[in-house]
């Protein structure tokens, strides 16, 4: 068992006092970290808005146009689809041909 005669003068549950200069330096360090965190958050939000604006600008560069072509009489209609296939035929036909094959 340890000698408790030296312990009787100290309070058992009281924390040790921290020097004022150590406390102030710790608080200053925390304030700088909080300031850096706010700056990082603001920069991240600004970059998020900038990237969204860049994507919107890029997507708006495409000019989407549609044309309606009417044929006189009973002529054949030719249609080139999005997949590159050529559709030849009249009004009621759905024959698919590809001249490259």
Question: What is the element layout, followed by pairings?
Answer:
Elements: H1 20-59, E1 77-80, E2 86-89, E3 96-97
| Spatial ordering of strands, largest sheet | 1-2-3
Q: Classify the secondary structure makeup into a structural class.
A: alpha+beta
The pLDDT mean sits at 76
Low-pLDDT windows of residues: none
Helical residue percent band? 25-40%
N/C terminus separation: 98 Å
Tertiary shape: rod-shaped
How many individual helices? Answer: 1
Count of individual beta strands: 3
Strand content: 5-15%
Sheet with most strands: 3 strands, antiparallel
Radius of gyration, taken over Cα atoms and rounded to an integer in Å: 39 Å
Characterise the protein shown here.
By secondary structure, the protein is α+β, with helices and mostly antiparallel strands. Helix content is 40%, strand content 10%. It has a domain at 27-63. It is built from 1 helix and 3 strands. A 3-stranded antiparallel sheet has the order 1-2-3, with no helix packed on it. The longest helix has 40 residues, at 20-59. The chain is rod-shaped, with a radius of gyration of 39 Å. The mean pLDDT is 76.
Features:
single chain, 101 residues, alpha+beta, 3 strands
Entry summary:
The protein is an alpha+beta fold and 101 residues long. Helix content is 40%, strand content 10%.
